[in-house]
TrEMBL record:
Alphabetical UniProt keywords: Cell membrane, Membrane, Transmembrane, Transmembrane helix
An example Gene Ontology CC term for this record: membrane raft
Positions of transmembrane segments: 6-32
Native organism: Alteribacter keqinensis
InterPro entries: FloA
Keyword match Plastid: no
Family annotation (NCBIfam families): PRK13665.1
Subcellular location: Cell membrane; Membrane raft
Domain of life (superkingdom): Bacteria
Region spans: Disordered: 312-336
Family: Belongs to the flotillin-like FloA family.
Subunit structure: Homooligomerizes.
UniProt-recorded name of the protein: Flotillin-like protein FloA
Topology class, membrane: Single-pass membrane protein
Amino acid sequence: MATDQLMILIGLGAVIIFFVVLFTFVPVMLWISAWAAGVKLGIWQLVGMRLRRVIPHRVVNPLIKAVKAGLDLNTNKLEGHYLAGGNVDRVVNALIAAQRANIELSFERAAAIDLAGRDVLEAVQMSVNPKVIETPFIAGVAMDGIEVKAKARITVRANIDRLVGGAGEDTVIARVGEGIVSTIGSSESHKKVLENPDLISQTVLKKGLDSGTAFEILSIDIADIDIGKNIGAGLQTDQAEADKKIAQAKAEERRAMAVAQEQEMKARVEEMRAKVVEAEAEVPLAMSEALRSGNLGVMDYMNFNNVKADTDMRDSIGKATDDGEEGDKTKRPTDR
């Protein structure tokens, strides 16, 4: 192979490699699309995006949509929002939707809403088409003790001015639930709530529950209402059961105290008997001392023994009579 031919092949390969690298690093087709759509964009701007680690089509394609929709946006704003971590395509779509719906929304506010983590496109769509939020069954107890369950449908519209920093759907549902419970609880009878369910929605709406939220409550409708348990009767039954258990515990306490007192009295009786026996044991000693000292004569001592013997005899006769009467009572009539 001649040297000239070899140089031509090397030059041709270098040209091919150059174009491959160029088309890989520089999105030429995207640049052509931008120019075809009327977006004045330099090729070096796309190269700059590559160097700033910005994916060009994430910025250029939304810019093309914005320009075709008549929005006044440029690559610096969109690129800055992309570098901040925002969703450029969603913000541009939201701006186009707001423009079509004649809703005042600037790029800065849309970008702030997007960076706050809210779906700005959904918010714009919700401003045009209000959203219906359905609550679960919320139970309240009327003043007559009957439980009433109500399910509400809340129609809300996004408030774009309060999307940044405003409370979400969970707060709206919680506030409406609180209003339903308080309204049912302030009713004298559950029948009044059943007769006029609109009383709940009217009372809740008067409280201005959308204050500080990202939504504007348009209406609250009671979708379903039902009767629950008789909470008042249940509470009274539980109270009666508790009172009964308390009374039983107190009665058991008194019985235990009476048994303990009985045992204490028996112990005291035995103690007194012991003292009597102890006192009787001292009588012979006292009599012997009286005899020695001359305070008691022999005749006095004999008379004392006679009296004692007479008393023992009477006790024996009395015991024998008592035993005989008890034996007659236990004997059967046929044995008599």
